[in-house]
Amino acid sequence: MKRGRYFLQRGLTLIELTVVLLIMIALAGTVLPYVGGVGHSAMCQTTDATLHTVKDAIMGGATGSGYYADLLGQFPRDRYIATQGDSDPSNDVYSYSLHYLFVRDDGKDNDGDTHMPSSDGMTGVDPDDEWRAYTPQTAVGWRGPYLTTGASLDAATVAALDPSFSAVFDSANAATDAFVYIDMRSYDGADADTTPTGAEAAHLIHVLDAWHRPIVLQVPYYDDDGAGPHAADYHPEYARLVSAGPGGGIEPQAAAIDTRIQDQDAGNRGDDRVLFLSLPDPRPGGNVSCDQS
């Protein structure tokens, strides 16, 4: 009896401990990649859910009408960003940004006319250069914020973003290979002005994907008639939200935007997560599955 009790209590030998540790290390090598894959898939699915939440804020959803209906078919943008030196508003160039789901544009005089300032509560602004506040009688106007959760990135994070986040669209260049409407690496802010100063240099409010990178709003543009920049050259029917996707890691610089503004169907999206706002995804198969990306 004593000999049996001694055998049960003697513990493991050094060789036996070594064998157990080797088995545990081998198992860890098979489990960790699986766990990592699950984490990646979850981040991908979280990003897709965020894209759908932003789409509801723009297009309307269960919580009510969104920006698009309130502004009579417009996607979030400054009312005017630049002009072509004339008084025809159809020649103005727009700058789209999810920032305008949080903040109404500043109404700065961008077209150089002599109209009197607005009288709807914003002082020192041109009524042609800002969206009116929402009016219940007409059910028209900006009545945000349309989202309540946004982020203003710190300077280091902004500077570390992939260069695609600073490839700014230029409507005067028909061959432009642009990904964004606002240079996110030059400044974290600005009310969608190409040269922000003073009050316009406020921080830009981002919507972030699960990898902590800004989600981008793209509205494709083509100089269809060859006559230069014109409002009719925008193609809002192909408007979409774009996340740079997982890329090569979770660091800000680890992923680039692959979807170009001028690519109507976002066919070369790579691992981007893309969600079209007013039509089904025209790319066969849509995005790469979260389990495969």
Tell me what the structure shows:
Helix content is about 20%, strand content about 5%. The protein is mainly alpha-helical. It has one domain (about 1-293). A three-stranded antiparallel β-sheet has the order 1-2-3, covered by helices on one side. It is elongated, with a radius of gyration of 26 Å. It starts with a helix and ends in a 17-residue tail after the last strand.
Structural class: mainly alpha
Measured distance between first and last alpha carbons: 61 Å
For the biggest β-sheet, the strand order reads 1-2-3
Oligomer: single chain
Question: What Rg is obtained from the alpha carbons, in whole angstroms?
Answer: 26 Å
Q: How does the overall form come out from the CA principal axes?
A: elongated
Could you list the spans in which at least 5 consecutive residues all have pLDDT below 50?
Answer: 31-35, 189-201
List how many beta strands DSSP finds: 3
Largest sheet: 3 strands, antiparallel
| Total discrete domains | 1
Tally the helices.
Answer: 4
Beta-strand percent range: under 5%
Give the proportion of residues in helices.
Answer: 10-25%
H/E topology pattern: HHHHEEE
Mean pLDDT: 76
